[in-house]
Amino acid sequence: MIRYPQTDDTAEKAVTDMLDDKEYLDTTTGSDTPKEKEQKDQFEKVCFMCRRPESKAGKMIDLPNNIHICTDCMQRSFDTMNNTNINYEELMKNMPNISMIDLNSLQNQIPQRQKVKKKQEQPKEKTAQKVFDIKSIPAPHRIKASLDEYVIGQEYAKKVMSVGVYNHYKRVFADITDDVEIEKSNMLMIGPTGSGKTYMVKTLARLLDVPLAITDATSLTEAGYIGDDIESVVSKLLAAADNDVERAEHGIIFIDEIDKIAKKKNTNQRDVSGEAVQQGMLKLLEGSEVEVPVGANSKNAMVPLATVNTKNILFICGGAFPDLEEIIKERLNKTASIGFQADLKDKYDHDNKILEKVTVDDLKKFGMIPEFLGRMPIIFTLSGLDRDMLVEILKEPKNAILKQYQKLLALDEVKLEFEDGALEAIADMAMEKHTGARALRAILEEYMLDIMYEIPKDDNIGEVIITKDYITHTGGPKILLRGQEPAQIEMK
Questions:
Q1: What is the CATH number of domain 387-488?
Q2: Is the torsion defined by CA of 431, 434, 439, 443 positive or negative?
Q3: What would you report as the CA-atom Rg of the chain, rounded to the nearest whole angstrom?
Q4: What is the pLDDT of residues 219-272, one digit of tens each?
Q5: For residue 128, what pLDDT is reported?
């Protein structure tokens, strides 16, 4: 016979008795092997009904077949049954083949990517696997030196980022006991497309070995509308940290195309993807506890929820900010006056460094709200890439594109070289596309296709030299056979 509580008092007593009954709580763990038990101990129990982890919902009631129910859901279930006039005894009698129900199908089987790791106290000899602490944070000059190995140019931007990151992690790991509270070093990067904004952040996160989440602001909308809500960026960071909340809370979030959420001008509709998104991001940027789904972007998904504190998460925003140059020029031209000391109206038309003169007022006029800019204390610009910088990007960095192709051909025991004239021609073609360094890869892919296809056919080829004539379609590359002098051949 199955009995159900008839009053709220008896329901509460039933829940309490279940929690106090150790034999009942341990019915599902007795058959586990030591290895299985150790693996289970690494992750939190998740309520089968509300999908909240144990750290959030409290102590769980363990049911057979690895099903866990939190006390809140169990209480709500009892309350629901108390408020209905259903005769459960008659219901069970009239339910045919109830013994055929496979409880294994109801198991709380959660995919690995949706499991939340427990916060465990580790012994002193195995102290937390932090990449660095207050004493081992890389100094700004060391951070910049590491960035120099991968990023060409942008000296000012690299210096600003190095100092900002250094101060941020000093703030995170410092034990501040006085009244002086150090604010977050959130950054706003302004630069044309292809200038290296995303690449610098990726390189920085890799050097520091901290989790990184990259999102596009164009996909963000106010909560309740079609698109990703603002808190989804924290979900991506948690996924990048392998669902380790503590590690995620020391990570970096990069929001690209931030200029796309500027306030819309002359609109009568609700600005759900502009100003509303900026407003929704304020708490995240400043620091707040956010409940985010584990392994999904929507809170409506039947997945566990984890609480992440964004207080120590470094937010870096980047955008091209088109038309910002015109706003800056307009402001600077207002200083022009009539007379001998008047500035020419076209004085700034050909100024390649006009973005360096940006002010907060310019960004406000562009459409960024003051509250958002107030939470971005570090604002800096990246310069556009010129021809010489593009040539250096091709050959100088540790993972330069040319070095990648040379490595690929070296696996076929073929040496690959580029003439200086060929590199300059490639840079000129990239300049015409106006997409920055992104154009270099596309151009090289086009010219290397035939070479990567034809060269492996002949084992006698020992060296390939890419010439300017080959890039300009007036000749072919130089092919050096093993033990022979270079000769020009025409690629098919």
A1: 1.10.8.60
A2: negative
A3: 31
A4: 887 666 666 778 888 888 988 888 888 888 999 999 999 998 888 776 666 666
A5: 40
pLDDT recorded at residue 121? 52
- Report the run of H or E that residue 252 belongs to, with start and end: strand 252-256
CATH number 3.40.50.300 given to 140-381: yes
First to last CA, the chain: 85
Which residues on neighbouring strands pair with residue 213, listed in sequence order? 253
The 3-state DSSP class for residue 479 equals strand
Q: Enumerate residues 6+ apart whose C-beta is below 8 A from 423.
A: 391, 394, 395
Residue 379, pLDDT score: 93
Angle, CA of 171, 169 and 308, to the nearest 5°: 90
Q: What is the pLDDT of residue 86?
A: 62
Note the pLDDT of residue 252: 93
Alpha carbon of 159 to those of 187, 342, 383, 385, 398: distances in Å? 13, 36, 14, 18, 19
> Phi/psi at 128 (nearest 5 deg)?
-35, 140
Phi-psi label, residue 257: left if phi above 0, alpha if psi -120 to 50, beta otherwise: left
The residue ranges of every structural domain in the chain are 8-112, 140-381, 387-488
Cα separation, 153 vs 445, in Å, equals 24
Q: What is the pLDDT of residues 66-114, one digit of tens each?
A: 788 888 888 777 777 776 666 656 655 555 555 555 545 444 455 555 5
Extract the tokens encoding 197: 């904004």
Burial class (CB in 10 A: 0-12, 13-18, 19+), 178: exposed
Residues 6+ apart with CB under 8 A from 120: 42
Q: Is pTM beyond 0.85 here?
A: no
Q: What residues in the chain have per-residue pLDDT under 70?
A: 1-42, 83-135, 175-180, 222-227, 266-273, 295-303, 335-352, 483-492
Q: How far apart are CA 93 and CA 97, in angstroms?
A: 10
Contacts 24+ apart (CB under 8 A), 152-158: 152/389, 152/392, 152/393, 152/396, 152/397, 153/196, 153/383, 153/385, 153/389, 153/392, 154/195, 154/196, 154/200, 154/382, 154/383, 156/380, 156/381, 157/189, 157/191, 157/200, 157/380, 157/381, 157/382, 158/200
| Confidence (pLDDT) at 13 | 54
Residue 132 in tokens? 């660095």
Q: Give the Cβ contact number of residue 261 at 10 Å.
A: 28
Closest by alpha carbon to 474, among 459, 490, 460, 485?
490
| Residues 72, 78: Cα–Cα separation, whole Å | 10
Q: Extract the tokens encoding 354.
A: 């006009």
